[in-house]
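User: Run a structure prediction on this.
Assistant: Running it now.
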Amino acid sequence: MREPGRGNVVEPRKRRPMKLDLEFACTTAPRLQAGAYALIRDAEDRVLLVRAANGRFYLPGGRIEPTETPEEALAREVEEECGWSIRIGAPLGEALQPILSGSVMLRATYWEAALEGLVHEEPEHQMLWTPLSEAASRLHRAADVAALSFEFAQAL
């Protein structure tokens, strides 16, 4: 895999909430979990997706541990999942997404990011560069799809 071109540094923007209209049923109150996720694009306007062991595609990122900031968690998760270090750009927004059959409510924060350098060659997940126009149809989580839509709106 080749390293993407370096872009200009993006000044942080104010986070904007992303509204999702999702239906789910859970007999107990869901447990809240925070996560940080990256929208990583290359020079060909493709989006980096990761394929988990369950075969589903997601934006790279994951759980924020209690001692981490969202940015620290994002950098750690992308390194674990992809084997690359990243430069974190502007925040894109936040979304709530029920996961694990509604037993957990994921509060996902999305960030622009760029790959910087290969850290190790044993990533946890398969990486797939996908045209931006096709990424939404591959993603498993509605919140990840919303992050793509939010990015489309900002680009116009």
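Residues 83 and 120 are 5 Å apart (CA to CA).
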